[in-house]
Every structure is written in C-alpha cells, then in structure tokens.
Design a protein that fits this description.
By secondary structure, the chain is an alpha/beta fold. It has two domains: about 30-120 and about 250-315, Bordetella uptake gene, domain 1 (D-Maltodextrin-Binding Protein, domain 2), CATH 3.40.190.150; about 125-245, Periplasmic binding protein-like II (D-Maltodextrin-Binding Protein, domain 2). The protein has eleven helices and eleven strands. Strands 2-1-3-10-4-11 form a six-stranded mixed β-sheet, with helices on both faces. Strand 6 (about 155), helix 6 and strand 7 form a beta-alpha-beta unit. Helix 2 (about 40-60) crosses helix 9 (about 260-275) and helix 4 (about 95-100) runs parallel beside helix 11 (about 295-315). The longest helix is centred in the last third of the chain and has 21 residues, at about 295-315. The chain is globular and about 65 Å long. It starts with a helix and ends in a 6-residue tail after the last helix.
Length: about 325
C-alpha cells in the first residue's frame, strides 16, 4: 500500500500551505532585538535586563543589536524592513513619534510600518529649577513669567527634545513666554542649571534625583498622571489645572508589519510576565521607568496618539531637525 504523503503534499500546496504544520512553533531560534541607540545608553540599560528575562521565558537567546544614529531612525528603519517572522523586534519609543514630524523623508511610518507588540514602561518629566533661583513653586514661576515675558531662560538637551516640547506645551497652556537655550545633550543643560546660568529645565527622574536629594534642584511639577512615589508632595501638572501637560516618555517592543498574531501574543505575554520579576522591576526603577502593561491594540493607540500630538506641535513651531 502506498503512503498517502505525496497526495497530502499536493493537496496542501493547492490549498496554499505546506505539508508540515502551517506555522512552525515559535520561537525555534534566537530572537534579535534592535536597540536604535549606542551600547550603555538608557535604551540599552533598559533592554538588556528585559532580554535576559525574555530569554528565560521564551527558552531562546534574545540578542541585542545596537544600531544607533539619526535620532533613532537608522535602527528603527532596520526593524521596519526586517522579515515579519517574529525573530526581529525593535525597541521603539516616544522619540520615534516626535521624529516622525521633525525629520523630512523618514523612511518608515512609525504607526503603519510596525506591529506594536508590547509596552515596556515609561518615565515622567520633571519641571525643575535651581534651588537658589528664588522660584518656590509652579505658581511662582508662572507669575514671574507673566510679569516679565521673555525674562526667564530654560535649558533643554536640544531642539525637539522631550524637555523642549514640554516647555512649549507649558507656554501655550499658561500663555507665558520663556527663552529656550538648547544644548547638545542633557548633561551640559543640567550642569548650567545647577550652576545657576539657566533657571529652569525639564528632565527625567533618572537624571535629577541625586541633585534633588542634595537640595540643589527643586521640583515644581511632574508630568505623570499621578504623583511620583519619590516626591509625594510635588503636584502633577493635571492637579495644577494643566492636563494637557501630562507626558510619559515610553519605550516598547515593536515588530515588522504583518508579524503573525500568535507571535505578537506570545511576546506580549512574555513581556507582561517579565515585568512581574522583582529583579527586573529593580533595574527599571533605577532607570526611572515605571512598567506599563498594555495589549498590542492599546500600545498601537498610544503610538498613533503621540504621533498626532507631537506632529501638530512641531508643525506649529515649524520645528525641523534637517
């Protein structure tokens, strides 16, 4: 009696799928995660401990591939054009939604060219002043700015940075005018605020906590929806009447468009499980990142909303990076 396999193979081909299982068990080989920033940076420090947890959960190595350059565009482009087989993931972030509107001819669409798989977490932005500036509160800052339009400088890590855009939102919301002093990076901007050359800046918690604890900086408001556990006495912008200044700088994992739904589900579940591990929570906390678990659909809505939000703002400011 002849074996039925040749006939089965013909039927399967005619139906458009192979004779073996239509979708091979995933993962069956190492998974690459593109990190579009240099080794040792904040993205890298966030992803490496998560990669270790994912490797344990998925039973396959998770390999970091750093591809920095052009405001995260180079690495993110490599992720967008990778095969949608589940073996290439890309670390995406709010910075991508800003870059989409600031750069001409971005070679991918952050909303449409990815399947957004799992949110990792996010950090607030803190509005801080030099403690010797004489500015005691958010109300005090705004009152001074209204009395003397253009008299108060603020520092940022550069045009189009999160700190810059939060301050632009603040000026629109409060009908005030500050003078923007852009620096080439967050470190020199912070140093000049600490030195008293500039009064105000907006920075993430990871860059400011030591100076707050030492009394050199004062936090006037935080951009998170809730008060920071580290600073329970500092109000949120929303509490102060400016909900439009609520901003979370998030990071997540995205896959190329058309990645299989079951792969997306498995990665999302693995990230959610990883976020419950105490050691990972400790590492993220050190980076000032609060875990944010979302479904892929919820994550996609955040990406779309932020792309629209920052695009509208950068267009109104005629802000371009090139």
């Amino acid at each position: 009696m002849k074996k039925p396999w040749p006939l089965l193979a013909v039927v399967c081909c005619l139906l458009g799928f192979p004779a073996h299982a239509q979708d091979e068990a995933w993962p069956s080989k190492p998974i690459r995660v593109i990190v579009p920033t240099p080794p040792g940076g904040a993205y890298d420090r966030t992803m490496r401990p998560l990669a270790q947890e994912l490797a344990s959960l998925l039973k396959q190595p998770v390999v970091i591939d750093n591809k920095p350059g052009a405001g995260n565009i180079i690495g993110t482009q490599a992720g967008a054009t990778a095969a949608p087989d589940g073996y290439t993931l890309t670390m995406t972030g709010m910075v991508n939604t800003i870059a989409q509107g600031m750069y001409d001819n971005v070679p991918f669409n952050i909303v449409n060219d990815f399947t957004h798989v799992a949110m990792i977490g996010g950090s607030a932005q803190w509005l801080v002043v030099n403690s010797q500036s004489g500015i005691e509160s958010f109300a005090d800052l705004i009152a001074r700015a209204r009395r003397e339009p253009g008299a108060i400088n603020y520092a940022s890590s550069g045009a189009g940075s999160t700190g810059h855009l939060v301050m632009e939102l603040l000026q629109k919301a409060t009908q005030t005018s500050f003078v923007h002093i852009p620096y080439k990076g967050g470190a020199p901007a912070l140093m000049d605020v600490l030195g008293g050359q500039v009064a105000v800046t907006v920075i993430p918690p990871s860059g400011s906590m030591q100076y707050i604890q030492s009394g050199k900086l004062k936090v006037l408001a935080v951009s998170s929806p809730k008060r920071s556990p580290e600073l329970p006495l500092v109000p949120t912008f929303e509490e102060l009447g400016y909900k439009q200044l609520t901003v979370i700088s998030w990071v997540g994992l995205s896959a190329p468009k058309k990645t299989r739904p079951e792969v997306v589900r498995k990665v999302n579940e693995a990230v959610r499980e990883a976020m419950t591990r105490p050691e990972l929570q400790k590492r993220l906390d050190a980076e000032g990142i609060t875990p944010m678990t979302m479904t892929p659909d919820e994550f996609t809505r955040v990406v779309k909303s932020d792309t629209e939000r920052w695009g509208a703002l950068t267009r109104s400011l005629q802000l371009k990076a090139n």
